[in-house]
Automatic annotation (TrEMBL), chain A:
Region (Disordered) location: 28-57
Keyword Ribonucleoprotein recorded: no
Subcellular location, principal: endoplasmic reticulum
GO biological process: endoplasmic reticulum to Golgi vesicle-mediated transport
Lineage per the UniProt record: Eukaryota, Fungi, Dikarya, Ascomycota, Pezizomycotina
UniProt keyword terms in alphabetical order: Endoplasmic reticulum, ER-Golgi transport, Golgi apparatus, Transport
Entry GO terms, CC: endoplasmic reticulum; Golgi apparatus; TRAPP complex
InterPro entries: Longin-like_dom_sf, TRAPPC
Record SUPFAM superfamilies: SNARE-like (SSF64356)
Skewed-composition ranges (Low complexity): 36-57
Protein name, as recorded: Trafficking protein particle complex subunit
Native source species: Paraphaeosphaeria minitans
Domain of life: Eukaryota
UniProtKB/TrEMBL annotation, chain B:
Assembly information from the UniProt record: Part of the multisubunit transport protein particle (TRAPP) complex.
GO CC terms in record: endoplasmic reticulum; Golgi apparatus; TRAPP complex
InterPro entries cross-referenced by the UniProt entry: Longin-like_dom_sf (IPR011012), TRAPPC (IPR007233)
Keyword annotations: Endoplasmic reticulum, ER-Golgi transport, Golgi apparatus, Transport
Superkingdom of the organism of origin: Eukaryota
Name assigned to this protein: Trafficking protein particle complex subunit
Subcellular location field: Endoplasmic reticulum; Golgi apparatus, cis-Golgi network; Golgi apparatus
Pfam families: Sybindin
Entries under CDD domains matching the protein: TRAPPC4_synbindin (cd14856)
SMART domains in alphabetical order: Sybindin (SM01399)
Keyword field contains Transport: yes
Record GO biological process: endoplasmic reticulum to Golgi vesicle-mediated transport
Source organism: Paraphaeosphaeria minitans
Length: 171, 131
């Protein structure tokens, strides 16, 4: 499989974490095209060659906002059509697939992959339960809110996420 | 599925149109046009085939929405159960019915709401036959 990007949004619509390049390269599949929206919240990131240009960073935050707006309206549309207990799971185009998971606290986990994968919701749930809660929520130094990825972009979380993506996700 | 009035439906259709455009724009790997080759040189390049498509399938816990866009930009949305098989063929057949009973109807004005009794009947019959 190819993983294009991964985003976490908090309930204030700010992206708390987004990581297209770092985890995408750890996968076996043919190297994904260099994500034009490559932004890593950690300043001293190895993969920051793309994100260092202001234009690329602007583009990154643009797509973040687009994705947030998109999942937000899709979710509202699904609620309107299917009733409030219906949940939006994923959508697919001919080129990619977007997986979505929302926690009860309205944190949104969004993953863009290729189209061959089935639903990744259980995996996104695991990322939340086993990685996010473990390394970010239980971190006494992490703030409650994470504007711009403060606290979420810690090394333990990122390393665990990378490991999870490269081992646990279906190939 | 909730019953919606036509105002809500129009609103959803409008927002879906926008979302469809955004999903097109978000495409992380835009399809590349094939390299120039000798046999293809005789044909005019199609402007439609190498463009990212927007949403094709939307899955939720209770329904599944299939979106089929014709080359002329008309979108067909089909809402089914999550496990419904053969949606593609159903969609194709509906497109055929649309072409037969709506587009060939001399009294139909394009881009107006479809009020063709024959189309309704054919569609009903087709869906009942499959169900």
């Amino acid at each position: 499989m190819v993983l294009y990007s991964f985003y976490i949004f908090d309930r204030h619509s700010t992206s708390t974490y987004s990581n297209p390049a770092a985890i995408a390269r750890s996968l076996s599949a043919p190297t994904p095209p260099p994500s034009s929206f490559s932004k890593t919240p950690r300043p001293a990131s190895t993969s920051s060659t793309l994100s260092s240009t202001p234009a690329a960073r602007a583009h990154a935050s643009d797509s973040e906002k687009l994705i947030f707006g998109l999942v937000f309206s899709l979710r509202n549309m699904v609620h309107k059509l299917g009733g409030t207990d219906d949940t939006f799971l994923s959508y697919r185009t001919a080129e990619y697939k977007l997986h979505y998971y929302e926690t009860p606290t309205r944190m949104k986990f969004v993953m863009l992959t290729d189209t061959k994968l089935n639903n990744l919701r259980p995996y996104l749930h695991q990322i939340w339960a086993n990685l996010y809660v473990e390394y970010v929520v239980k971190n006494p130094l992490a703030p409650v809110e994470h504007p711009g990825g403060i606290g979420v972009a810690n090394e333990l979380f990122e390393r665990a996420l990378e490991l999870f993506v490269s081992t646990a996700l279906p190939a | 599925m909730q019953k919606l009035n036509s105002n809500d439906l129009l609103m959803l259709a409008g927002s879906f149109h926008g979302m469809h455009a955004i999903t097109k724009q978000l495409c992380p790997n835009p399809p590349v046009p094939p390299a120039f080759s000798a046999p293809a040189a005789n044909l005019a390049p199609s402007p439609f085939t190498h463009r990212p498509t927007g949403i094709e399938v939307l899955e939720t816990s209770q329904f599944r929405m299939q979106c089929f866009q014709t080359i002329t930009g008309i979108k067909f949305l089909l809402f089914t159960e999550p496990q419904q098989p053969n949606i593609d063929t159903t969609m194709k057949k509906i497109y055929e019915l649309y072409a037969d009973f709506v587009m060939k109807n001399p009294f139909y004005t394009v881009e107006m709401p479809i009020r063709c009794e024959k189309f309704d009947r054919a569609l009903d019959g087709f869906i009942k036959l499959r169900g």
